[in-house]
Design a protein that fits this description.
The chain has 2 helices and 4 strands. By secondary structure, the protein is of the alpha+beta class. About 15% of the residues have low confidence.
């Protein structure tokens, strides 16, 4: 079971998706949300604490009030270092 929240962004409507207490998608097309459901992900429109915080941070970022977006990490989560992914980009949303 996954959850999503809808928000207005500078690019139009956006959808933030949470699954297993992790943000898994930031979508800008309602068809992409429908595709996730067709692929078997059961989604319910619910404002969880994680989704509300992600929405708040994105809204602040889009207003120009934040340079980076850093959603909270769930317990036991460790960020991936650049070294461990061979130098692939690991920057936060900018």
């Amino acid at each position: 079971m996954g959850f999503y929240i809808e928000m207005t962004s500078p690019f139009g409507q956006a959808y933030i998706v949470e699954e297993n207490h992790h943000i898994t998608h930031l979508l800008f097309e309602k068809d992409e949300l429908k595709q996730l459901q067709q692929d078997g992900l059961e989604l319910r429109r619910t404002e969880t604490e994680l989704l509300k915080e992600a929405k708040r941070q994105l809204e602040e970022y889009f207003r120009g009030g934040a340079e980076d977006v850093h959603p909270s990490s769930p317990p036991g989560w460790n960020p991936v270092s650049e070294k461990s992914v061979g130098g692939a980009a690991v920057d936060p949303v900018r």
